[in-house]
Amino acid sequence: MADVRGLPARSAITPALLAPALDAVAAAPGAMLLLVTGWSAHWGTEAYLAHPWLTPQAARDAVEAGVRTVAVDALSVDPTPQPGDPHADAGLPAHRVLCGAGGVIAENLTGLERLVGAEAVEVFLFPLRLPGADGAPVRAVARVG
Question: For the CA atoms of the chain, what is the radius of gyration?
Fold first, then answer.
């Protein structure tokens, strides 16, 4: 779990910010990486579009650490384009890295901040089966030990 709460709007989640979380998951290949940005508090407002985002190198580092599922409490793992934003034409690079490695991305989660500091967390994602779709709503459930 990477607790990156407190980042300013439109900030990059860099490899350095992920390093402690990736050190922990490296011992458990296939582990899910939870990105706790705190941005779900902005749901329903314009501010929600200005969420922190995962750099392509941070996504590559996650894949190299064995992560195949990334879950975030923000709109996307990539920057949401804004008029005049230098990242507007980025082409979803974090999505490409993660999905290109056979990974799964869960976005728009809520309540991840309640998991910070827990000793043992298991997260389950139960998607709806939507034939022909490249995504689906999920019921996300966490068990804290």
Answer: 14
